[in-house]
Amino acid sequence: MTGRIPQSFIDELLNRVDIVEVIDARVPLKKSGREYSACCPFHNEKTPSFTVSQNKQFYHCFGCGAHGSAIGFLMDYEHFEFPEAIEELARGVGLDVPREADSGDHQAPPQRDSHYAVLERADRFYRSQLRDAGSAVEYLKKRGLSGEIAGRYGLGYAPAGWDALTRELGGDRHTQEIAVELGLLVRRDDGGLYDRFRDRVMFPIRDRRGRTIGFGGRVMGDEKPKYMNSPESPVFHKGQELYGLFEARKASQKLERLLVVEGYMDVVALAQFGISNAVATLGTATTPEHLERLFRTVPEVVFCFDGDAAGRRAGWRALEHALPVLKDGREARFLFLPDGEDPDSLIRRIGYQAFHEQTVDCVPLSQFFYATLSQQVDTRSVDGRAHLVELARPLLQKLPDSVFRDLMLNELGKHSGLPVAQLTARVFGNAPAAAAPAPKRRPVSSGRSPVRVAIRLLLEQPELSGCVQDLNAFRDLDMPGVDLLTELVEMLREHPHLHTAGILEHWRGRPEERHLAQLAVMPLEVSDGLQHEFEGAIQRLAEQRAAQRMQQLLSLDHGTGLTDPEKQELKQLFAARHPML
């Protein structure tokens, strides 16, 4: 179902969910004083530095800095997208996730539960048929696959008849319509039905939660087409899904690299030899959506292609799609196979260790980029080097502002002989690459400023927001963090029952989120009670705002002069500061 998830529902969900239960089900926790601890699941360590606060409903690792709510944990640990994490938590507490209707969209949402149920029935049927399909079993054995690997990837068999699945699903019209919509069955011109997949080894395609969303079928002989995929459906979109990603994540919670190959059988055959981090696109070229999904899962992606001209063209298309998503910390490499080899045949010939080493030591994107462009020009001539810059320019413009982009410009300078400053102007039409614009709201200042103290205390005890009598007393104070404090107080007045994790979710994706998370784990330095300390910080802010405003008015008085209201304001400020005069 489309539409935005209301913030009010997210607040309610986080109030019902217990982050300790969510994390403990995946990473065993030990009680440690008021909090819980474990070795961090996001980096290797021997001494636990990962803590979970039941009071704040917040986790934080003092080793690598990972932090967040139960939502953030599922996104980082399970690699869920935001809506998927919400849905997972909501199921655990028996809530249905509401959606705000998209503007102009009045269509009823698809009945996805029914779609998944029909796909699950088909999946079970295909698996059951494999047990008695001698030709399919023999084919898989010849490909060197064990029963364990076939079971891990859920391989099955679609019988050769025209109506095996049709009969299995039965005569219920609603089920038949869903099966047609999913592409499992095809409707004849006369209204009858027949099976789309026949006499094929079946590969279930699973989403990030392990649900079957479609199928790929492979012939066992030389018939065409060799591979057949489910068509687009309400639950299956080829340009977004990757075969084997669910299995790769299940095999290792600490994936560092994913290998993108061309076919289902390559994925499964590599797993047979211990390479369990391979995925495949579903009959399409690698799309930007694929790449975003890959890089949200791992920092490094290796594209594996044939070494012939067609394979290198496919590699170049993957490179072009990768450029816009190559933020700092992300890396793409290319592994081009020897002539006549595919991943299955190569790993059989050279073994796991040698194949693994090739995936680690393959061609970096930058090297493939400039090697391919340099083949199109004569870099020995001025004309050729100028042409190289023109070829590289529209591609480099796709890169996000990053250290990697700066280094790619440096590399272009080496190939063209032009200084980097000139190249920057030529490529981007300005002076050296501009830094990212500063956030509108300034970060909380370091040191024990009253702003920092007030925000830290609100994160610890949100109900303190009720102690602020007059926000205008410091709202326009020129001091780092005041805007953030003001917004925080206003938000907590509307949502007084939020805990720390719930507060941070209101700032998800904003520059201030990181500063709030850092403050949330800072030790409290309070000697006289939280409320007394908070009220003291607010009072100091009001005094500083009054002093600042007085100075502004005095400066105006010495310059252009004051209006009558400004004179009255200055008199009141002076009287408040010096009540005995």
Mass-distribution shape:
globular
Radius of gyration: 30 Å
Count of alpha and pi helical runs: 24
Quick one: how many beta strands?
A: 16
What is the CATH top level name of the largest domain? Mainly Alpha
* CATH topology label of the largest domain: DNAb Helicase, Chain A
* Number of structural domains: 5
Description:
With 581 residues, the chain is of the alpha+beta class. It is 47% helix and 12% strand. The chain contains 24 helices and 16 strands. Helix 16 (382-396) packs antiparallel against helix 17 and helix 19 (450-460) packs parallel to helix 20. The radius of gyration is 30 Å and the shape is globular. It starts with 6 loop residues before the first helix and ends with a helix.
Characteristics:
581 residues; alpha+beta; DNA Primase, Chain A; DNA primase DNAg catalytic core, N-terminal domain; Dna Topoisomerase Vi A Subunit, Chain: A, domain 2; 5 domains; five-stranded antiparallel beta sheet; five-stranded mixed beta sheet; 24 helices; 47% helix; globular
